[in-house]
Amino acid sequence: MTAVLCRHFGLKHIEIAEDIASDTFLKASENWAVNGIPENPTAWLYAVAKNKTKDYFKHIAVFETQIKEAIKPTGPEPEQNFEFSEQNISDSQLAMIFAVCNPTNSTESQICLALQILCGFSVEEIANAFLTKTETIKKRLFRSSANIRNDNFHTQTLQETEIKSRLDTVLKTLYLLFNEGYFSKTNNRQIRKNFCSEAVRLTLILTDNYSTNTSQTNALLALMCFQSSRLEARINDKGEAVLFDEQDKTLWDKTLIEKGNYHLVNACNGTEVSKYHLEAGIAHWHTTPTDQNKWQHILQLYNQLILIEYSPIIALNRTFAFAKVYGHDKAIPEAEKLNLTNSNYFHELLGYLYADTDFDKAIYHYEQAMGLTKSKIERQTLTKEIERLKEQNSR
Amino acid sequence: MKEFALIFRLKDVADFKPSPEQMQERMNWLAGIASQNKLADKGNTLLPIPGSAKTVKPNNVVTDGPYTEIKEFISGYIVVKAETIDEAVEMAKGNPIFDQVGGNIEVREVLKRD
Question: Which residues contact B28 (CB under 8 A, 6 or more apart)?
Fold first, then answer.
């Protein structure tokens, strides 16, 4: 809703659009509580928003003619008439995604803005997810929306060239938005799920639009579908992470896996191999628990991925896959060469690799990991593992 | 951090086409270096086959292939990041090429031309 209104107002008036949107929802909650939910709630909301906008313009017109006559507003005059038609909603949302993913803002800010403007999360919810103070998020949002306003990015007409030059940034932000949900620091399961499904929704807008339905977009969507299919299985009722091998595979969402397959096929109709392709490929193999050569394939994909882009997490995951193919003994020197002694994941990997052969080293690395991790869930998992090893060793 | 080129040489053109297993081992080695964030340039393969390799000499003499005077030929290169040449040499020692087909790897510090 904010997206359509912004398209109408221009991004300079983003607060007005947001105010009207939240006023509309406020009115809905009052009215629906008394009169019940109308037959077509979406249409109802849009009708109210439209009226509120008209009121706003009448108000402004008086203000403009009587008080501010001398000052001319910048940019084209907004038309009084606009429609919340399906086409307009979809175009506006697409344009808004491109406006929010502004490379002059840091990626953190882009994600915060996307969460607020495109997904409608409150400042509190966002702060909760990032484990930061609401003040910090407020400041971040304030600064970054100012940047957007000054950027003069017109959402009325999204040009082909703008789409091309900004699509990479857009995909990266959506990828990080998804990861924020999938690997979130917060224990709040609902927020995490909402983040993920919002990222999927926004990416779907891109695949629905001819000029943004690229092979990379499809690869990213495939990746999100595969990962989402395991959302239910990877956290248990107590909020603890469930290791892949111990996940209840019946909880995996088959529909999402099929959707992922569909988009992965779409992604492979060119010659392009992006990091989204490789990550989607890896996620695809994870959805096939029985295949004998699964880890062989996963290792090859990680090999390619690490050549495109180095990151400590990719390096660690690659080494894990290496251990699955060539055994723990051969993987230990590979892992130690990574030398990421400040990373809890590095010590977790070494603890895991040493667990069957060298009790002392395994305990040493697990304890190092304990000291480094900030996640409560992870500390619980590690404590359990250390206890299990100690018990095993005392026998 | 310095940069070193690792230049691969093979003895026989017949060794040039690796089997899928050999390819996988070489990829593992390369990705292992990249995993330590020590790969400056993943380099390229240099084709030694007829039509893809010629040598230009004085007086417009052009010969086929790289292999008239030396038996060995260069098959490719990568560039790694390392503190010392010894560290780069250690990386080269891990290359599966020695077990697979023989050949050698020359390690040379890169002096940037800027």
Answer: A299, A303, A322, B96
Tokens of A108: 């953190």
Q: Which pLDDT belongs to residue A73?
A: 46
Question: Which ipTM did the prediction report?
Answer: 0.86
Among B24, B32, B39, whose Cβ lies nearest the Cβ of A334? B32
Which residue of chain A has the CA closest to B78? A307
Whether chain A has a CB inside 8 Å of the CB on B79: the answer is no
Q: What does the pLDDT look like over B14-73, one tens digit per residue?
A: 778 888 999 999 999 999 999 999 999 999 999 888 888 888 989 999 988 776 556 788
Rounded alpha-carbon distances, angstroms, from residue A326 to A294, A323, A332: 13, 5, 10
User: What tens digit of pLDDT does each residue of A53-77 get?
Assistant: 777 666 666 655 555 545 444 444 4
What is the maximal distance between C-alpha atoms in chain A?
A: 89
What is the pLDDT at residue A96?
83
Q: DSSP per residue over A322-341, as a string?
A: HHHHH-HHHHHHHHHHH--T
The token pair at A211 is 């000029």
Instruction: Tell me whether residues B28 and A339 touch, CB distance under 8 A.
Output: no
| B27 to A337: CB separation less than 8 angstroms, yes or no | no
Whether the per-residue pLDDT at A140 is higher than 50: the answer is yes
Distance CA A330, CA A199 (A): 39
Report the top-level CATH class of A291-395. Answer: mainly alpha
Nearest CA in chain B to A317: B35
Check if the beta carbon of residue A316 is closer than 8 Å to that of residue A343: yes
At A194 the three-state DSSP class reads: helix
Closest CA to B89 of B5, B9, B18: B5
Phi, psi of B64 (to 5 degrees): -75, 140
Domain extent for B83: 2-109
The model's pLDDT over A252-290, given as tens digits with 9 standing for 90+, comes to 888 999 999 999 999 988 788 899 999 999 999 988 877
Q: Are B35 and A339 inside 8 Å of each other by CB? A: no
- Using a CB-CB cut-off of 8 Å, the residues of chain B touching A318 are 31, 35
pLDDT of residue A60: 62
Q: In chain A, what are the domain boundaries?
A: 1-84, 291-395
CA distance A323 to chain B (A): 12
A338-350 per-position pLDDT tens digit: 999 999 999 999 9
Interface residue B30 vs chain A (CB under 8 A):
yes
Report yes or no on B114 lying in a domain.
Answer: no
B31 and A334 in contact by Cβ < 8 A? Answer: no
Specify the pLDDT at position A163.
81
H helical segments located in chain B: 20-35, 85-93, 97-100
A322 in reach of chain B (CB within 8 A): yes
Q: Cα distance from A309 to chain B (closest Cα, Å)?
A: 9
Instruction: Give the contacts of A117 (CB within 8 A, at least 6 positions apart).
Output: A2, A3, A14, A18, A96, A100
Report the CATH number that the domain containing residue B86 is assigned in CATH: 3.30.70.1060
C-alpha to C-alpha distance for A369 and A364, rounded to whole angstroms: 9
